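Human: If only I could read C-alpha cells as easily as an amino acid sequence. Take your time, and here it is.
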Amino acid sequence: MAWVDFIGSVHSSTSRDYLARVTEDDKAACAEIACRWDEEYWDGDRKFGFGGYKYDGRWRGVAERIATHYHLTDGAKILDVGCGKAFLLYEFTQIFPNASVTGIDISSYAIRNAKPEIADRLIIGDASRLPFADDHFDLVISFNVLHNLYIEALFQALGEIERVGRGQTNVTVEAYRTESEKVNLLYWQLTCRAFHTPNEWEWIFEQAGYAGDYSFIFFE
C-alpha cells in the first residue's frame, strides 16, 4: 500500500462553516434525508449534501494525474466505485476515447442524472457486492465513498475492490488526525459511518486484505 492523493486539492477548495452545520438546522433530520441518496442530497439545499452537484470541469485535472501516475493507456478498463454523477469517468473518456469506463453507485438519482455521454456505462449497485469478474479492471478507484459503510460492508467492499482490480487501485476516505479535525468531521458529515484516524484506516485496509493505494481527506 502507498499513500497517493489525487483529490485533496478538490476537497480543500470548498469552504465550510462547521458550526452553522449543527446550529442552523436539525442536523440529525438533515442526515436522515441525505442518507436516501436522492435529489435532496445531490441537488437540494446545502444542508442536505452537495447543494447542487453540477459538472464544472474540476475533475479533468484529477483524471489527468491519475492517468499519468498509473500509466494508463487508451483502451484501459477503469471502474469507479461510488461514481456519483460520473464526472470523473467522463473526463477519462475525454483523455482516452477508447477507454472502457464503468461506474457503480447506490444512488439511482445520481445514475439518472449523470453525464449523458456515458450513461450507458453506469449501473446502480452496492460497493460490497461488485458484479464483475476477478481481475477485470486495469484500475479501480473509490473516492469519498467507503467511510459511508458500516464495518461489515466496509470490509466486504475493500475485498471486492481488491478482487476485481488487476493490482492498481486507489481509495480515498475521510479521516481525522486531531481532536479539532474530529469535531469538524462530526459537525460536517451527513452520511459517514466509519470515523477513524489514518492509523486505524491502515489497520482496516490490512485486515480486509486491501493492498492498493489510498489517501485521506481531513476537515481542518
Q: What stands out?
A: The mean pLDDT is 97. The longest helix spans residues 151-164. DSSP finds ten helices and six strands in the chain.
